[in-house]
Amino acid sequence: MTPESNPVDAAMAWHGGDPRATIDALLKDRERLCEQLAIARACISKGYTRGWLPGAEFEG
């Protein structure tokens, strides 16, 4: 399996094999995406989405 076909290997390779840098980048990406999700929740009306609102199912 090549690094390009395995997302974990690709992320590690992108950060020069440094696991701390990889984890740090992923945590920062997650934070940014959570912020964008909060903005989407505030902007999307419940009626427009027929009762569905974007959620953070991965949070728990």
Explain what you see.
With 60 residues, the protein is mostly helical. Helix content is 55%, strand content 0%. The protein contains 2 helices and no strands. It has helices at 7-14, 19-43. The longest helix is centred in the middle third of the chain and has 25 residues, at 19-43. The mean pLDDT is 81.
Percent in helix = 55-70%
Mean pLDDT: 81
Work out the strand percent: under 5%
Number of helices: 2
Please identify the structural class as seen in this structure: mainly alpha
Following the backbone from N to C, one meets helices and strands in this order, namely HH
Biggest pleated-sheet summary: none
What would you call the shape?
A: elongated
Radius of gyration: 16 Å
- Enumerate the spans where pLDDT stays under 50 for 5 or more consecutive residues: none
Beta strands, count? 0
Q: Between the first and last Cα atoms, what is the distance in angstroms?
A: 32 Å
Protein name: Dehydrogenase
Features:
60 residues; mainly alpha; 2 helices; 55% helix; elongated; Dehydrogenase
Write the layout of secondary structure elements.
Elements lengths: L6 H8 L4 H25 L17
Protein name: Dehydrogenase
Organism: Rhizobium indicum
What is the gist of this entry?
The protein has 60 residues and is an all-alpha fold. It is built from 2 helices and no strands. The model has no long low-confidence stretch (mean pLDDT 81).
